[in-house]
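User: Could you walk me through two proteins back to back? I'd like the raw sequence and the structure tokens for each, with a short line separating them so I can tell where one ends and the next begins.

Assistant: Of course. Protein one, sequence then structure:
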Amino acid sequence: MKKVIIDGNSLTLKDLVNVARHGYEVELDGEARKRVEKSRAFVDKLVDEEKVVYGITTGFGKFSDVSITKDEAKDLQRNLIISHACGVGPNFSEDIVRAIMVMRANALSKGFSGIQPNTLDTLIEMINKGVHPAIPEKGSLGASGDLAPLSHMVLPLIGDGEAYYKGELMDGIKAMEMAGITPVELTSKEGLALINGTQVLTATGALAAYDAKNLAKLADISASLTLEALNGIVDAYDERVHKVRPHKGQMDTGKNFLRIVKDSGRTTRQGEIRVQDAYTLRCLPQIHGASKDAINYVLSKVDIEMNGVTDNPLIFADDEYAISGGNFHGQPMALPFDFLKIAIAEIANVSERRIERLVNPALSGLPAFLTKKGGLHSGFMIAQYAAAALVSENKVLAHPASVDSIPSSANQEDHVSMGTIAARGARDICYNASRVVAIELISAVQAIDLNGGSEKLGLGTKVAYEKVREVVSTWEDDRVMYRDINKAAELVDSNVIVEAVEEAIGELEF
């Protein structure tokens, strides 16, 4: 079985995706285990000496001024979990739950949280044996971390709550028993160590950012198909244009378009058919490039957060000191994930405008709605409606969550990030955008068939055209459209078009 070794410092987005979506197991690094053991020993010392440390010998939030005795430590930690499990709504998907679990395990393995090694081992065992806690999507403020959803993650760990095992939702204790895992009894600091962090919002947003990167590459390909269908002008992608305004995403995108349509007999030069194209073709390096720059910015923040410690208090065993700070606050990720929402929404926005250019005879010069039998047949008329609806929904979802804050815990926690809402929004926008691009793919290949066929397509567009036509045949008569959209969406989700094009022309710039 393929494994990812976690040490708190070197988890990559690729590692995260492999655990979340490809069933990789997780193993704790040996040096990391030593750090965890040392951190735990210092927590035990604090408890034995009855030092006043938040969350270890005190209550939580507004109750931080309430002292907790050594004898009450276990009750305190269990009560924390069961009282904080206040999530509502549908449960997160399995890949997000696995991403949450591995990110939390990775943060704990840095050795600044005071977790018992056995508790961390049990969390890792749950990942490896496929016990996936039922974690409702809603209920987190993104500070103090993702308290409610992470509490749901912990419930099966302590033999409570609900979990999925082999695809079936059941009581958490039953899932643990069926997987042969012994639940743990939490002691001082452990409940807080498990739930006081940003792993839910970061896991959700990280997977959305990963999908957004792939979607942005595919959008270059789908736009290239549209360019070929409309005999678009390639001069606007000339490297000289972009060198005088050298934004990386813009320059990369211009290069991508020229490589994808290389050797095409369908594209044109300025003045051959028309002097210039509309913005949705001519300005693609600027539009797609700006989204790519935003996505890369978000990915850089994800890389930091995946290997950060977002607990409170932090245990510095080497210095024998515990500090109550604010690393649980989700603001460093809330703003990037709001930025990600806008970046992905714009990919869909311009894709829908290209669909309109394909189906509108006044703009394309092609048969109306890409059907030869207009009137009797509606062709791609309502496919554009669906894309427009998705784009409009994205505009609502793109409203920033991070600009809002509602005080909590009797104003002790008086500013929160709402970062989990931002991350969920990015995920939802990415889903909608992927369906818009799927509609563009099937519209563009239909337009190509109506405008001379695929013989003179470029190196990359030819490959993409063939991949789409493997699952969606040319429209001659009206048929049930959603089936074709779903087939194209499966191509988008599997990333096979990007992989095939990159195999043919080399990796696309990003």
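----
Protein two, same layout:
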Amino acid sequence: MGGVSTGTVLLAEPRGYCAGVDRAVVAVERALEHYDETIYVRHEIVHNKFVVDRLKEKGAVFVEEVDEIPEGSLVIFSAHGISPKVREMAEERNLRTIDATCPLVTKVHKEAVRFARQDYDILLVGHEGHEEVEGTAGEAPEHVQIVNSPDDVHKVTVRDPERVVWLSQTTLSVDETMETVDKLRERFPTLQSPPSDDICYATQNRQVAIKKIAPDADLVLVVGSPNSSNSVRLMEVAKEAGAKASHRIDSVHELQEEWFEGVETVGVTSGASVPDVLVQQLLNVLAERGYGDVKPVRTATEDLMFSLPRELRQEMKNRGATDSRKKPTGESATAES
């Protein structure tokens, strides 16, 4: 492969794994180590092909629905969250569960329950069919309407315009969400906002970082799987922020020769469910192509860490094991599930 000899890489920081993804992936790894039985996982634990394939190799069995799991077995729920209906189905099959739902997603679930109790119409900004949206909507199906985009705002109907609130999928683009919310507020001027930002800190941080890089990049490469909402969003945010071209790749095998024609500066980032080994592979390939001058661009420092799921912590404690993850430095570095 040919390439320029003095090419530059602008490397986004932060990028890759967020606290919720780390917690979920490690939960499966620890369960495989500490339980002497088959570990089932409902849906992909996180939206990344490499991670899922690696866990399959270690013995995890991924299923779409709990009715595929033998009664009495152990199942881990993915980081995206589940609806009460799924939980009930698991109970009916006497499944033992480890809930790896990201605590930030759980927060949105609790908001949906609370506003439904107060008899609000809940406008959930998110993508219909996404696991997270299905889980959140399932908390209060009679009260929730999904709003996919600003173009859907005109279809929304509510019972009382004075009792309407918006919530959102955590992995959306901040700009995309607020564009939809602004249009909703034009229709419903007293539309309430959630008590805190629903857009996850990691999603926001990664978008801020790529916005910083994009104007100076001839090409932006986003490492992430096609079903990873936040990875797809990063690619779109890069284009909107001024990148001349932007592509999402699952791995270095998807790189296209023509992308590099006339390119001197490459921006690199990765979605929140992407292990850094995939980014390092990309940097190695870029160096071989002549893009060896790597300049990190940091816009935030992340030190949040979530405790492993309660059920798993208890099992590990019973076996004399502890959470061996390297603790980040900084105040409030850990958080309970």
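The domain at 8-16+201-298 is CATH 3.40.1010.20 (Cobalt-precorrin-4 Transmethylase; domain 1).

Let me know if you want the two compared in more detail.
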